[in-house]
Amino acid sequence: MLVAAENVVAELLAEVSTLGHAPRVIGVFRRDALPAGTRDVTLALWRVTDPGNVGTLLRTADAFGAAVSLSPECADPLGPRALRASAGAIFRVPLVEWNDAPSRCVALVAHGGVPLADVELEGPLTILVGSEREGLREALVTPCHKATIPLPGEAESLNVAAAGAIALYELSRRSLL
After folding, report:
1. Which residue(s) pair with 70 in the sheet?
2. How far, in Å, CA of 47 to CA of 32, rounded?
3. Which of 31, 48, 84, 174 is least crowded, fewest Cβ atoms below 10 Å from its Cβ?
4. Which CATH superfamily includes the segment(s) 35-173?
């Protein structure tokens, strides 16, 4: 249900808003009304604790037609920062239970993987990205194909949202999404 701001006292909107300027529209929805289901590609987020990155990855998944799976310890996708970063994608992207993501997996690792452009990316697939601080646990990476995004510059690694976006773009470029 959407409520026009003109029907709500401006001071009340300012009080409940986390923004510097109160929004003109607010939404009320049931948490269990978020989309479920599967797609051929699932972007699996392992312990991504920054809500901005979670929201950005949801938005990117929406843009490229992928589902998203959130591990325990991920930032709340319904928190204010994640909601803003998702630009509404949270209400369109299917959320897949962590254990229900497709079993064929490509884990993005900062170093030591096959260049992403050389990895076979066909069929139902999970692209696994991890926390910038911790990376991915070896137990998660072992059953997956390891892929690395080559970085010709001097940066040690990419932001998790950038890495996820590049991986989904690579699938799209190959017309696999």
Report:
1. 45
2. 22
3. 31
4. SPOUT methyltransferase, trefoil knot domain (3.40.1280.10)
Say how far apart CA 3 and CA 29 lie, in whole Å.
11
How far apart are the C-alpha atoms of 8 and 62, rounded to whole Å? 31
What residue spans define the domains of the chain? 1-33, 35-173
> Given the structure tokens 């249900």, which residue do they identify?
1
Q: Helix, strand, coil shares of the chain as percentages rounded to 5?
A: 35, 20, 45
- DSSP code, position 13: H
Question: 99-155: per-residue pLDDT in tens?
Answer: 888 889 999 999 999 999 999 988 899 999 998 888 899 999 999 999 999 999 999
- CA torsion sign for 130, 136, 140, 146 is positive
